[in-house]
Each structure stands twice: as C-alpha cells, then as structure tokens.
Amino acid sequence: MRIIAVGILFLCFSIFSSLSSTVSYAKLPPRFPSSVVRPVQLSLATKRGTKLYKAKYFTQILDHFNFNPKSYQTFQHRYLINDTYWGGPKKNSPIFVYTGNEGDIEWFAQNTGFMFDVAPYFKALLVFVEHRFYGKSIPFGGDKDIAYSNASTVGYLTSTQALADYATLIIDLKKNLTAVDSPVVVFGGSYGGMLAAWFRLKYPHIAIGALASSAPILNFENITSPYSFNNIITQDFRSESENCYKVIKGSWEQIEDTGSRSGGLELLRKSFRICKNYIDADALESWLTTAFIYTAMTDYPTPTNFLNPLPAYPVKQMCKAIDDPTAGNDTFAKLYGAANVYYNHTGTATCFNLAYSPDPHGLDLWSWQACTEMIMPTDGNNQDSIFPESQWSYSQRAAVCKGFYGVDPRPNWITAEFGGHDISRVLKRFGSNIIFYNGLRDPWSGGGVLKNISKTIVAIVAEQGAHHVDLRFATSQDPKWLQQVREREVKIISNWISQYYQDLAHHS
Q1: Sorted alphabetically, which InterPro entries does this protein's record hold (predicted)?
Q2: Which of the following is catalytic: 93, 190, 228, 494?
C-alpha cells in the first residue's frame, strides 16, 4: 500500500479528497497587558461589516539572481494590508509582515488572527505577502497555463526567489510610506514559518525579528528521522485510547483483504458511504490516511474551520467514534465514524467523493517544491506506527519527480542555502531574534527547533499544541497554556522593538 505520494503530503495540507452532497471540499510601554491577545478583532470586524485587509499589487521582477533579458520580466505580486491601528511613519510604528505560504494569501491571513489581535497594542501596520506562483501572484501575465506548463517556467518557483520577493516588496513599501525607520517583524506558520526564520537570517537588515511557528527547518538531509512524523501521529491517537490506536493500525490489512475479494469494493463503498463514481482500495486508504494526518496536525483546543470544519480536540472525537460500543466489532463502521469527524463534521455530506478535485486554496504547486528543494522525509513507519510499516525512499521520490516534472530533486540544497546541521552551535554565533514555536501534538514538530539556541533565539514548546495554533485568532475558550504562549510571544516581540528604538535613538 502506498499511502503518501509526492504532492499528496503538503507541508501544511493537501485537500485531494472531496466531500459531496454534492458539494466539493476543500515607543512601547515597559509591560504588556494580558488583554493584548483577547478575542476581539475578528468579531468586531465582522459585526461592522469591514474587511480585514485591502488587496494591493506590486510590480515584481521574475528572477532576482540573473541578468539575462528574461530575468527582467515582471509580474503582479499581491499583498494584503491593514493600517487600521498603525501609528504611522512619524512615530516609526512597527510593520508586521506575514511571509506567505504555498497557497492563496487571503486564506492564510484569515487564519493568522494573532497578528490582528496584537496590532492595536503595537500600533502595527499589517502586511500579508503572497508567495509567487500561488493565489493571484502568477508570473507570465498571470496565465497559469503558461506559468505551470513546464520546468522552464515553474522553475522560478523557489524559496530563495520568494524571500527575495519579500525583501524587495518590503523595502519599496517602506519607502513609499516614508517609513524607512519603522521596524519590521516577520511572521509565518508552517512553510511560511520556515520562510520567516530564513528571512531573518538572510535579510537581518530588513527584519529585526521573526516569529516562526511550526516551522520544520530541521526536516531535511538526515537531521530528523523519517519516522518522526508518523510516530507523532501515532502517539496522538494512542494517547487518547489504546483501542483506538489498535483499530486504526489493524484496519489497513482488512481494507486490502476486503478490496481484493469479489464484491469487496462495493462493500467498502457502502461501508464508507463513497459516491458511486469511484472506488479503489488504495484511494480509500489514502483518503483515511489524510484524515488522520490532518486531524493530528490541527488537533486544536477549540472548533475551527481551517482545513475542514472540525470540533475542538478532533483526535479525541475520532477516538470516541472508534471506541463507540454501538459499532460492535465492525471495524469499517468505526473508521467511518472517525472519518466523519474530519470530512463531515457539519453533517451535510450524503456521500464522499474519492476522485481528485482541485482544492479551493491553490496548493497544487507544492508538489513542484516537494520535487525540487523541499525534500522532507516523512514517510517512514516503524512496527508501532499507526500506519503500515514502511521505509522512506529517496530513490522512489526522485523517480516520481523525474517522471512527473522531468527534474531531479536537490535534497542537500536547503541545508546548503539556509543551514540546519549543528544548528545550535551555528546560529548561536550569528543569529538573533527568532521565536520558534512548536506544539508537540503536531507531527511537524519533530523537525522543529525545540530548545533555546541563545538568549534571543528562543524555543516555545507546548505539550498540547498543534500546528501553528498560536497564530490563530484568540477565543474565549482558549486554554490557559495557549494564552500564556501568546503572551510570551508578545513580550519577546515588545523587547525586540524596544531595543530597536533605543538603538535608533542612539545612532540618530
């Protein structure tokens, strides 16, 4: 069984399955008040009927690292801006920039409420910059058919080009706002968090600090075990219920055995309420695997509507469905109940569509990045894994990428460009002002920075935290530990900005 293929496991998420009814899815004071991150901004904006941001465009160069004529082509680079609480350039009020992920920037802005929540306290200007080749920031005239056509065009989609985009845009924006002395802090979650950390290291003259949430910058080149990712998912479910773990672990063989028998596929279709247009045992296994992976990633303490509508603590809810005594010994009924938590929490689906449908957030091109520089081993499963035992195979990844895109991956490039090996020893000597947040229920935390590197490169680790939960809008139901995480982040950022103002005054 091949559960996870290139392009299916995106860094943040892939939504390759569909849900059907038939609807497809897819100067600062010395102390800070604890009310800084109270849940007020989103609700107020919604009640007033105002938008969280305005969309603007910047004429961006195609290639920052070459000087041939094609390099000077440009494209319209989208960014979102909110100046509601900005103190303005005369006060050198800060600018908070979100380094966009692999998708539509509006989606990420709407799920990064922390920046909106703290903007009034910091009197910050908020800017969310879209990643090239995603959303509406498409080179080659905005024509996706051309931009995505082959390696000669999509080859301009790299993390280094994206970081240079952000640097160029921020410098121009500050100049146009006559805010050249306003300090910039960058924020990001997941791949965006990786970019935020790398931006601080590569462009320290532009950003004074970075909050890198759930950023697996160590998930490369033999730094992190390829078994780490699925081991954490396994532990998430096993911590809720040993029976839940055993049912899921034992289900894969049952699905394969059933699918190979005469009439078995139809039985699977009926058991899992699969729409009549498509049924395949491997597809069903991938569909279920996706649910377990993303439920573990987004095991948030409050209801969310991020990847899919989910209840609070969805891993617990999945295990409740699996442990439901009314299902008896029917493994498929138990799994169906668990899948419903992820795919049908709203209860609107009449059947599930396993056929591929494009996701609404424009994540498709992550598969290109996963075939070029983002070689992040996550597929290994040991004997205790909730998924079938397997080994990570670079050669298999390389073969798939060669066949699909005609390119050879560069598995050593990220560590050569940004570092990673012996990170504590290396960054201690030259890095500063980075917060690495990780929640240990997030499978990506295995590739994260989990220990302080220096006094100014700080790791905040939450035992019950999930994927960049700290960046979400605050709610009245947030547990105390999450409130404390955010308050600590605010305090650290406050210190960065205060120190910047002191240095600015000293050198004026």
Answers
A1: AB_hydrolase_fold, Peptidase_S28, Ser_carbopepase_S28_SKS
A2: 190
Helix (H, G, I), strand (E, B) or coil at 422: strand
Task: List the Cα angle 8/12/18 in 5-degree steps.
Answer: 50
395 counts as catalytic: no
In angstroms, how far apart are the furthest CA atoms of the chain?
81
Domain limits, CATH 3.40.50.1820, in the chain:
34-222+415-507
Residue 146 has pLDDT above 90, yes or no: yes
For residues 401 and 371, what is the distance between their CA atoms, to the nearest angstrom?
5
* CB neighbour class for 329 (10 Å; exposed up to 12, middle 13-18, buried from 19): exposed
Residues 6+ apart with CB under 8 A from 457: 427, 428, 431, 432, 433, 434, 436, 449
In angstroms, rounded to a whole number, what is the distance separating the alpha carbons of residues 103 and 157? 13
Q: Which residues contact 401 (CB under 8 A, 6 or more apart)?
A: 6, 370, 371, 372, 407, 408, 409
From the candidates 77, 131, 467, 468, give the one annotated as an active-site residue.
Answer: 467
> What predicted TM-score, i.e. pTM, was given to this entire model?
0.92
Whether the Cβ atoms of residue 466 and residue 442 lie closer than 8 Å to each other: yes
DSSP state of 274: B
Coil, strand or helix at 95? strand
Q: Is 326 helix (H, G, I), strand (E, B) or coil?
A: helix
CATH number of 18-23+241-363: 1.20.120.980
Matching residue, tokens 């081993």? 377
Active site residue 165: no
Chain segment 108-138, per-residue pLDDT in tens:
999 999 999 999 999 999 999 999 999 999 9
| Annotated catalytic residue within 165, 442, 470, 478 | 442
* CATH 1.20.120.980 residue window(s) in the chain: 18-23+241-363
The yes/no answer on whether domain 34-222+415-507 falls in CATH 3.40.50.2000 is no
